[in-house]
Design a protein that fits this description.
Radius of gyration: 23 Å
Helix content: 25-40%
InterPro entries: Endo/exonu/phosph_ase_sf, Endo/exonuclease/phosphatase
Order of helices and strands: HHHHHHHEHEHHEEEEEHEHEHEEEEE
Number of strands: 14
Keywords: Endonuclease, Hydrolase, Membrane, Nuclease, Transmembrane, Transmembrane helix
CATH class of the largest domain: Alpha Beta
GO molecular function: endonuclease activity
CATH architecture of the largest domain: 4-Layer Sandwich
Shape: elongated
Strand content: 15-25%
Protein name: Endonuclease/exonuclease/phosphatase family protein
């Protein structure tokens, strides 16, 4: 036994190789799971949101391999880092229009069509002061406002603060707790019912936008996958969201998921584009923007609030805005819709 141990100690190359591959292995596993076309496990759903941070940290693997002079591990580490970077870095690059040559006509139409301003905010159990939200609406002048965690008390406060003077058409589905939502618009609105997958009331409707015709909007808010028992609710809620269709479609709200989650990637594969991603703001964290911990561990900001737009829609601008009390940042996008008849 002593002779075997001495043999291992006397072979530093083995230890250097082991160190190099131990540095590469966790990042390689993460990249493999990230490329899997499915949310493989409840815990992975929680972890995958932090892929941008893991992509940044993955540079450690090739550096370790370089320092210990292990060529195979260096090549593997570089490949893993490149894979994770390919998943993440495009979100920091502006791409307001589709690259598909077949969409050239859409690109031209989208660049000159009617402008639609969309604002979304999670009110944290209705706790955002109504005056603060109404002030933000006055400043940004959105045509569409989607709200999550809208309670009856918050809805009454917003009306008293003058929200319906600015956005007179509404689909108010306020509810106690976190399950309520709302859709408020400047233009005529025809509420629609979504296929219910749980007790959450996601507001939805058809907005008659002048010059663009009917635009379908959903205030998105699936269950937060904080506990295993909510995984099914979260998954079903995202799966039930409508894909792009004959009408222009916009999904706006707190998705409780990032662009690294397979359920959101399926929506992008169906044709949607993320407004933040399209403008190079896809790494702007929206939750939590104030200190927050999970089981005693600090949670760094992730991007779980989105405005997903129909492939026929151009994205002109995107931004995040603070509201008091809530742990989410409000998100705002200026969209250019295809004009009627294009």
């Amino acid at each position: 036994m002593a002779r075997l141990t001495a043999g291992w100690v006397g072979r530093p190359g083995i230890w250097r190789g082991l160190l190099a591959w131990l540095a590469v292995a966790p990042f390689a596993l993460w990249a493999l799971l990230r490329l899997t076309p499915g949310d493989v496990h409840f815990r992975w759903v929680q972890l995958v949101a932090f892929t941008p941070y893991v992509a940044l940290a993955s540079v450690v693997a090739p550096l370790v391999a370089l320092l210990v002079r292990r060529r195979a591990a260096l090549v593997a580490g570089l490949a893993v880092t490149a894979t994770l970077a390919a998943c993440v870095l495009p979100r920091a690059l502006s791409d307001p229009f589709p690259h598909d040559p077949a969409a050239a006509g859409v690109r031209a139409a989208g660049a000159t069509g009617p402008v639609l301003r969309v604002l979304s905010a999670n009110l944290l159990y209705g706790s955002v002061p109504p005056a603060a939200l109404v002030d933000l609406v006055r400043r940004l002048r959105p045509d569409v406002l989607t709200l999550q965690e809208l309670t009856p008390q918050a809805a009454a406060g917003l009306r008293a603060a003058g929200l319906t003077t600015l956005l007179p058409y509404a689909d108010d589905r306020a509810q106690e707790g976190s399950a309520g939502s709302g859709l408020f618009t400047r233009f005529p609105l025809r509420p629609e019912e979504l296929t219910a997958s749980d007790a959450r009331r996601q507001a939805a409707g058809i907005v008659e936008v002048p010059g663009a015709g009917p635009v379908a909007v959903v205030s998105v808010h699936p269950c937060a996958p904080r506990y295993a028992v909510r995984f099914g609710c979260w998954s079903r809620s995202l799966a039930s969201l409508p894909g792009p269709g004959e009408r222009v479609q916009i999904l706006s709200g707190d998705f409780n998921a990032t662009l690294d989650h397979a359920r959101v990637r399926r929506l992008l594969d169906a044709g949607y584009r993320d407004a933040a991603d399209a403008t190079g703001n896809g790494l702007a964290g929206t939750w939590p923007y104030r200190p927050w911990d999970f089981s005693g561990l600090p949670v760094p900001p992730v991007t779980i609030d989105h405005i997903l737009v129909d492939p026929r829609v151009a994205v002109r601008a995107f931004g995040v805005h603070r509201l008091p009390v809530t742990d989410h940042r409000a998100i705002f996008a200026e969209l250019v819709l295809p004009a009627t008849g294009t």
